Queue: 2 jobs
Job 1
Amino acid sequence: MKTSISKGVLATSAGARANEIIRACVHCGFCNATCPTYQVLGNELDGPRGRIYLMKEMLESGHVDDVVETHLGRCLTCRACETTCPSGVQYGELVEIGREIVHYERPSRSLMRRFVTAVVPRRDLFEPLITIGRFFRFLAPSRFKRLVKKPPVHAAVDGDGEVVLLQGCVQRAVTPEVNAHLARLLAKRGVATRVVDDESCCGGLPLHLGDVADAKALARKNVASMKDERVSRVVSTASGCGVTWKDYGRLLGSVDARAVAAKVVDAAELLAEFEFERRLDVRKVAWHPPCSLQHGQALTGVVERILEQAGYELVPVADAHLCCGSAGSYALLQPGIADELRKRKVAALGRNDPEVVATANIGCQTHLADGMGVPVHHWLELLE
Ligand code: SF4
Ligand code: SF4
């Protein structure tokens, strides 16, 4: 795609990078076919190609208007378009730059957005809020009910190994038992784990909303907390956090950030070398690969092989490449589109009568649990 961006903008690293990414696009439109928002809304501006045009115009004119703000805001950042693109357009990085400009020029006054960036990443605020929410669930707004559905399972990772388990912010408060179970699975196989107390939110929530400065501050804190040379692996059980941690080298550009990012693995990468048995007395499983796992981390087939080796039958699921609508804070900020995507995903997952649904990210797990009709587990909970 031809661009004519001013020299001043091109002199900035973000401007130069955006220009490079936009120029790689040959506007073929293949990406529209796999874009969930294009499928739901049917508007060119709600597909990747249209959004790339909007960002190009924004960079060329230096003007941020309602149109660009609206259509970039509706993007899930699922990166299905990256997986599809034959020209290797790095759309995720481009939309990050585009949203940073929108955020800078037009800081949002939305209360929900402020809640997402100011409260959710902060353990001292979010965890007490979830606890209070469980007692007063009947008063909670419908969009929050799914987070306070289950009573807490008191589970902690209590070890001193070299393999660090990331706790995340939402998963730590809502399903802490997932990490505790992984620690047990690994301990039985001779791998000692621990947690790092001052781990912060990965930064993914502010990053998706264009608050890059805030995301970088959280990333720097995390890099500092994991620099310890006794850390051999940093393991993520929430693929949405894992994809952000793995990207710290690019985000911060420092030697330390690159070194820490190189140690980050998804739990599936760590467990692939071991064998497991079935933990649940069910056989038919519908597997929902989160976008952050299949598109962000390009880990397709790994969890599937582990579950099949353990003795589960994975039922076919149509359109597995499509987002369920959770997408970090998206379900809170764009509830209409998120609900439609969930409805479609629930229908696709349920079509072949699974006994349970398995996924790999806390956001997908809580989002799909509403209306699925069968239990939705983290896939690790299926292993013994
Ligand atoms: S598939 Fe790639 S090259 Fe084609 S329009 Fe989409 S982003 Fe551009
Ligand atoms: S990231 Fe997802 S929602 Fe956004 S343009 Fe790409 S495919 Fe569409």
Job 2
Amino acid sequence: MPHTIAIVGGTGAEGLGLAVRWARAGESVIIGSRDVEKARETAAQVAANAGAGGHVDGADNAEAVARAGIVVLTIPFSAHATLLKKLRSSFQAGAILIDTTVPLAATVGGLPTRTLGVWQGSAAQQAAEMVPEGVSVAAAFQNVSAGLLTGDGPVDSDVVVCTDDERARQVTVELVEKIPGLRAINGGRLENARIVEQITALILAINGKYKVHRTGVRFTGLPIPAPR
Ligand SMILES: NC(=O)c1ccc[n+]([C@@H]2O[C@H](COP(=O)([O-])OP(=O)(O)OC[C@H]3O[C@@H](n4cnc5c(N)ncnc54)[C@H](OP(=O)(O)O)[C@@H]3O)[C@@H](O)[C@H]2O)c1
């Protein structure tokens, strides 16, 4: 049974990459944006790129959230609190929010290789504090660069899934594994998202040193094989 996934900020690089991959896997995707026309244009682009796969639609962020049981947040950290506050009343009861946000200093004019201190510990923990009761938050995909998602081949990376809710973990793991090459790693509690978010700043520094856009992360020594 396909999921319905709203991607808030789905017109950006990360959201677009995830949308194409999930649409190809047969999921039903709603691209969310502040601008409904932009959302529809991006949805058409995703549908063309994904081929005959899933159903892709565009809507303003609030409508996208209201129509989906799974909401994926792909927005700059500078918009995180304000947007979550606006969207609070739109969530379905029992929805799952997957937060990909990294509090990069670049979102407020600083360096992309540094992160901002977040009072709650991480962007994902800030989200958990802001969503209505009954909405579960999982943190994932922060270390998967849009450069890796773009293209047709397998994505050579692990995705650490941090959450305090086992249903949210299960759904997030399923969505990770819908993308060829990605492997989901159980990263424990949501509070561990603070460590995973920091790794993205390191990845950006490594990308800069090697002049690439597609550094990924793999964990070794685990009893779950990495996909080929
Ligand atoms: N890019 C990557 O490689 C990558 C990798 C891992 C994690 N991430 C994380 O994923 C998130 C998104 O990254 P991105 O590169 O896709 O970002 P982006 O392209 O800069 O922005 C994504 C979307 O967010 C919306 N947005 C921008 N400013 C906003 C505001 N003030 N209020 C509401 N919405 C706003 C825009 O959509 P509309 O204009 O259509 O509303 C935009 O298309 C970030 O937190 C980033 O750290 C990114």
